[in-house]
Amino acid sequence: xxxxxxxxxRTIICKLASSQRKDEHVQTTIDAWQEMAGWFSDQAMSFxxxxxxxxxxxxxxxxxxxxxxxxxxxxxxxxxQQAGIKVLEAYKSWNSNGRPSDxxxxxxxxxxxxxxxxxxxxxxxxxxxGYGVKLKLSPGVHEWxxxxxxxxxxxxxxxxxxxxxxxxxxxxxxxxxxDSLLFLHITTKEQVAVVTPDLDxxxxxxxxxxxERTIYTAxxxxxxxxxxxxxxxxxxxxxxxxxxxxxxxxxxxxxxQLQAAGDLQGVKACEDEHARYTDQVxxxxxxxxxxxxxxxxxxxxxxxxxxxxxxxxxxxxxEWPFHQLQEKIRYKAKEQGIPVADIDPAGTSNTxxxxxxxxxxxxDRNEFECECCGLEYHADANAxxxxxxxxxxxxxxxxxxxxxxxxMWI
Length: 410
Ligand SMILES: [Zn+2]
Fold this sequence. Notes:
The strands form three sheets. This protein has a seven-stranded antiparallel β-sheet with strand order 2-6-7-1-5-4-3. It has helices spanning 20-45, 49-52, 55-68, 75-96, 151-161, 242-260, 264-294, 322-335, 379-396, 406-409; strands at 2-17, 114-117, 122-127, 130-138, 141-148, 168-176, 182-196, 204-210, 214-224, 227-233, 237-240, 299-304, 340-343, 363-364, 367-369, 376-378. The protein is of the alpha+beta class. It folds into three domains: 7-20 and 116-194, Small Protein B, Chain: A, CATH 2.40.280; 26-111, no CATH class; 197-409, Nucleotidyltransferase, domain 5 (2-Layer Sandwich). The protein has ten helices and 16 strands. Strand 3 and strand 4 (130-138) form a beta hairpin. Zinc ion is lined by residues 352, 354-355, 357, 370, 372-373, 375.
């Protein structure tokens, strides 16, 4: 049994109860914050992209803070610092995603309707009626908001507030919608001990393939009488992604119309709506994956290592929430005591899980058709079984770098 530590980062989205007075205060503060972010964005625009991640850019932030807020280590300087950091993050992400170097992420700052709070500028607390948060909005004025959360949010908040639990929170973003609804996005971090069992400690291996056509596909394989050189497979679980994709496309269209009309608040509202919908979908999907795996314990869940897949904040609607779903699968698996392993998924979608032949031409959208052994299968289910089998192969042979070796397969 191998144990490693892994840092898990998540964002918890909580709805806040507000009042007209508090809401006006929030709006004024967000406007001020956006003005600072807009100013930093103008500065960053005049740099070469290589400078966005250089010390030059942090110097600009620091010098600006000294000039604008001399001798002030207070609340407005802290907000301005967060605005500067947020802008640079957006520019760096823009650059590292191969966007043209003569362009920049314009329109994201100045008129948007959110702000970021440094870790020590908001305080979470529990009371008899649930949870609340104190936001340091402006000098000398702190506001309390009751958190309206579901079961998931409450469980996470309880963990953050539990001194014996090592999950901690980082900064948070306060998002205000057109309809004045307030949402707090709290980032969290925890070190999770990842225990990967040996092959002889599990009965089943559950491979999980994440895709855009299907949100997840889980497939379990088991050894035949304890002999992993031959395996049998169980009925896979497949969750279609059609509804999610439809929702995403609808919001993408709506957003471009709003963008064309110059309605940046509307654009932001679309993105917020999508973030909440995604949170809900990934909660449901991760729960379903765990329920599937629970039938096969003792088992190991095998996920694709997405290190080489880059998820960014550049287009929050268009991107598929692979990381978010994986993180939720990880922590729900941990709660159920099911170990999770990763493998490099190279080749898993183009290889036949029955005979091991690899050919890109075998796959056509949802269908996989092997011309070598004649297997016809759901393409993502085929990939899920390959992910499980690959983990078995890796456990038996440390030096397996690819899976298109039929002799190793059977
Ligand atoms: Zn085949």
